[in-house]
Amino acid sequence: LLDVWVKYKLSKVFKYDYDLDAWLVKWIERDKKERALCFTTQVEYTPRGYLVLWVDPSIRIRYSLADYINDKLEEMGIKYTIQEIGKDKKLREDPVIVRALEQILEIITGEFAIGEGKSVNLIIFTKEGDKVVTKGRVESVIPSWTDQHPLKPSRQDLLSRKKQQLITDFLEEAERMTLYEYITKRRMKKKRKYHPEYPVIKARTKRRSLDFTPSDILIQYREKRLTMSPKKRYNYFEKIVKKIMSSILVDFSFLSEPVKLVHKLPSEFKLKRSRWKNWRLGVKDNSGIRPLPMLREGGKPLGGPLQIHLVYVVPDLGRKEVESLISDRNELIKRKFTEHNLGEIVGYSIKFYEWIEQNVERTRENIRRTLIKALKETSNLPEGVITFPVVVGPNYKGRYYEDVKREASRLGKHSQIILWNNFVDMNDETAATLACDIYVETLIQENIHRLEELDGLVWRLANPADGKGETIYIGFDYSRDREDRVSGAFAMLCDSYGRLISVRHTSLISDYITEEAARDIFVYALEKACKYAEKKSLKKPKRIVLYRDGPLRPLERTNIVRGFKRSLKALELNEKVMCLDLVEIIKRHSKRMYSRYKGEITNPWFGEYVVMPALSNFHDGRALVSSTFVDFKKIKEGELDYTVKPIEIRFTSYSSRKSNIEKIVDEYLALTALNFWSPLRRSKLCLPLILAHNLANLTRIGVQPRLPE
Question: What residues form DSSP beta bridges with 689?
């Protein structure tokens, strides 16, 4: 109700632009790409009766999938737009244009329809011509023009009919109506001419799947990042807030007189700093305790050195030139491998595939066959030398990505994919990241069935995250396939030092955790953790922290708690001894944090967080946490032009020994130090969530990852 009331009040001051999916403040530029200053909002009600309105300014551009296609056509040297091609039959049959559109189809599929598909805004017109924008997800891309596929009317079309008795007739008519006829009728109100577009986009709304034209799919502008420095964003924020404060009154009927909004933080919000406020968190490797980033300072990975033979699957763009390039880039990766004490790249081999720009399907099949042949040929390497494939793909992320992951996994291998342009332009930082990525993936590949025997992958925490060493952490995430079915759910276990214990695949028939699934997860986790503690001579676990990527539904929370209690009974454990903390990690919101550095508005320091008021019926604690490291050297040099987005942590305790938000934040920030995939950055997500998320992503594209026995 508060949200509806605030939107009503804001509509008196600002216009909500559905194409931009935000409140419009002003247009900055009106040209081919219309840039606009907008803001999104989020409303909260605090226990002491404050109405809190979060305001997040941003720069947005009107941009549809048709605009994206037209930009790609221009890059390929085609001087016509997709609409101009659609209205001219000769252009539609031109071989050069046909080949360009086939390549664009592959690019769109790779960009928007891989796995569960990208979230987009969908424009729907009622039969009377009224425009409605709703959210949806791209399911598939159909290689056909939009005058050939039937489209049923949306629910809005049906509800907009004044004479309800005609709905049945309308449905029967729609069964025979082509997409071209439907679009022509629905756009008559604006008297806009319609010409067929390519391709047809199948997208799922909340209710069902529908076909759309590229012009009716609104996406984020993709040419460059529309970033703003903290100072610039904060200045926009202040201007927007002053306008809201001067124009909106809180005038609920139970108030004796209207109340104005003020730009002031309620006393219920408290700024704090984590005990990990120094981002150079102490971690331990084989050379002793070292601060992050340890790999730049002579650290030795706990997994030990590896001997790796790299297999490069590369496009045949002139063998001598490509062989010379591979030799240079391999030498760079090899040097980084040695610098970071990861082991040795003992050798490499090159397998060429034919990259046919005019035939993406042939290119895709060539990559798949070459990869399979390459992995089978390198199976006779000396003992102790491990094969790892690096696929240098075309300059687009197409469906070949799925093929590479699927075929490599089927042959028991992890893999790395890098686009051709990125490989050609590789610098020291990219090479270091690639070297770490290859090392970690190879280490997991070779030790998947004995993770608990390792003292850590690359490093571990020098001190337990909980301060006592009595907690196990579970990261949970699930994925959906293109038909919107749950395709895979994973629970990743690690101990208080960030050492991996095991991973559990959970069967879900719906998109929430059932009581039975929760019971199975906790039984498995407690059994594994107890055996692990006994084997490592550690304390037996007395507490479980379950991290969920995204908010938990009330039913999910109830199911998890019941499943936890059932697991304790099944294992005959004392409910008074075992504790459960449910922690929700929220990344999508309209909240920001700012700090001051030498009098200037900057991004917050790593480890700074704001304790926010929590309604006791929903959570035991909430905090807005800055878990991103900001390089203040770049701030001094004026190179930093983006504003970091904090994560929101919500937690609920289910035990007699309740945790507090300070402890939950400290633990989470400690576990973000376990980003083994890069020597230069730390992740927003903690290790259990990263791995659960990665496994769930693989199942989205049909890859069945190898799991511990």
Answer: none
